[in-house]
Design a protein that fits this description.
By secondary structure, the chain is of the alpha/beta class. The protein has two domains: 4-342, Glycoside hydrolase, family 3, N-terminal domain (TIM Barrel, Alpha-Beta Barrel); 359-492, Rossmann fold, CATH 3.40.50. The protein has helices at 4-12, 26-35, 50-68, 87-90, 96-101, 105-122, 152-168, 199-204, 206-215, 240-250, 265-268, 273-283, 294-309, 315-329, 339-343, 345-358, 398-406, 435-447, 480-492, and strands at residues 15-17, 39-42, 73-76, 126-127, 172-178, 220-223, 256-261, 287-290, 361-363, 378-381, 409-410, 424-429, 451-456, 471-474. The longest helix has 19 residues, at 50-68.
Length: 493
């Protein structure tokens, strides 16, 4: 006769749930009580202030300890740059691409330690970072500035330095997205990407940084919702050949394996969430992430329990996963630090210093200095596709922000005819839906003899598509930290 209560607790430890709210909600309380879920993923929707966030983490831990007998493992997707859920409170940080552009791995360690201290101060145990993907496709919209570099060895150096920084602060790390998300332009949030490389090619590129991270002691790895036909006919998240055969047996990784979010369309287009979670658990995932709806997490637990009761998922395998999770939870560090550690003015200074090094004028037509920006300069570009918590429901607009700073003119997206006295233009570009339209405007206005400054608020790749008569500036990320740095560069010329 199976010990149902023990099984329920073991299954609950293999689920990480997200929820909406800034305090422990009845939904999450019910999930933990009924299914003994032991892991929580936080987002900006859960964050209002330092005291509120610290109290939330304290309350979640108390609830999970009471119901499961084990501490909560509280995670957050706090990489650096735009993928941040705390930056609006604690201060924005440079993106991985910006840090990599410095060619100074010590900056990766310092930013990792800075973020680690923020997490430690509120009681978050794991950052779902660093990104270990190599940016092999410059127009990879979902990864772009989240990658340290294109070159595998450089990604490995910076990724390991970032791991050291987080570990220095007592925070667990999770390398992602195994076995690599950098050689596709398809966003796995929206569809299932396919990477048709051989295992030999993967070993020379993508796997280099993951192997280095394993040697550096990363605590976890996150699977990619990507199909690698040379390895298996199943996406990595539900592939035992990839997770068990390649990651565990061949590469020797013995830490936690986490899934990427199971609500992402790459998986959801294949299976309902409960079935996808079950397949991930059976393939070797230790903890599956159900990031948004507690009832979906409950349904995933129920489906896993049915599988065990039917003899489809073996109890000895469940025991092995349970031991691995317990071993990691035994290393969790308590919250240590104050709001001063969380906000850390020295960290803001470091972030500004890094951005000042990498926001650069990389092309001067004819060797000429930047044109002067005046009230007659026109600013145009794209609106950020990522919502900024500090702006509420309003997307950040770099052109609007810059035009307001200079008292200059904002050119609406649909406008192509310019006032006769507008000779200088500043255009903001990123890898996204509006890029082609803005590139067409740049080419058209350049032919008309306008002086144009193009700023890449992402990887610099888009600048190669601008005419050589255009001044080109690297901005690296669509955030206020980068735009403010660009403004200073335009002022100082």
């Amino acid at each position: 006769m199976k010990d149902l209560e023990r099984l329920r607790r073991q299954i609950g430890q293999r689920i990480c749930a997200g929820f909406t709210g800034t305090e422990v909600t009845e939904e999450i309380r019910k999930l933990v009580r009924e299914w003994k879920v032991g892991n929580i993923l936080l987002y900006s929707r859960n964050v209002v202030s330092f005291p509120q966030l610290k109290q939330l983490c304290t309350d979640l831990d108390a609830l999970i300890r009471e119901e499961t007998g084990q501490p909560a493992l509280i995670m957050i997707d706090e990489e650096c740059g735009a993928v941040s859920h705390l930056g609006h409170l604690a201060g924005e940080t440079p993106s991985a691409g910006a840090i990599g552009a410095t060619d100074r791995p010590e900056y990766a360690r310092a930013i990792g330690a800075l973020i680690g201290r923020r997490l430690r101060a509120v009681g978050i145990h794991m950052s779902l970072a660093p990104v270990l993907d190599c940016l092999l496709q410059p127009k990879n919209r979902v990864m772009s500035s989240r990658c340290f570099a294109r070159e595998p060895e450089k990604v490995a150096r910076f990724g390991c330095a970032y791991i050291e920084g987080l570990h220095e602060a007592g925070i667990l790390t999770c390398g992602k997205h195994f076995p690599g998300h950098g050689d596709t332009v398809t966003d796995s949030h929206l569809a299932l990407p396919t990477i048709g490389k051989s295992i030999e090619a993967l070993k020379k590129t993508e796997l280099v940084s993951f192997q280095s991270a394993i040697a550096a002691g990363t605590d976890a790895m996150m699977s990619a919702h990507i199909l690698f036909p040379a390895l298996d006919n199943l996406p990595a998240t539900i592939s035992a050949k990839i997770l068990q055969g390649l990651l565990r047996e061949e590469l020797g990784f013995d830490g936690l394996i986490l899934s990427d979010g199971m609500e992402m369309e790459a998986m959801l287009n294949l299976f309902p969430i409960p079935e996808g979670v079950l397949r991930a658990l059976k393939a070797g995932v230790d903890i599956a992430l159900v990031c948004h709806e507690p009832p979906q997490a409950a349904a995933a637990c129920r489906r896993a329990m049915e599988s065990v009761m039917a003899g489809d998922m073996k109890e000895d395998t469940i025991e092995a996963h349970d031991r691995r999770i317990r071993e990691v939870k035994a290393r969790l560090q308590p919250a240590t630090g104050s709001e001063a550690d969380f906000r850390n003015p020295e960290g803001r200074k470091l972030s500004r210093q890094i951005m000042t090094e990498v926001v650069q004028l990389i092309h001067r037509p004819g060797g000429n200095a930047l044109p002067e920006v005046t009230e007659k300069t026109g600013f145009f570009g794209c609106v950020s596709r990522r919502r900024s918590p500090v702006e509420g429901e309003k997307n950040m607009n770099a052109a609007e922000m810059s035009a307001a700073h200079f008292g200059a003119r904002l050119i609406p997206p649909e406008e192509t005819e310019l006032p006769a006295d507008m000779e200088t233009l500043v255009g903001f570009l990123e890898i996204g839906d509006e890029t082609e339209r803005n590139l067409r405007r740049i080419r058209c206005w350049a032919k008309e003899g306008k002086k144009i400054i193009a700023v890449a608020l992402d990887t610099p790749a888009v600048l190669s598509e601008c005419p050589e008569t255009v001044w080109k500036i690297t901005g690296w990320q669509y955030q206020k930290l980068a735009v403010e740095t660009v403004i200073r560069l335009l002022q100082n010329r």
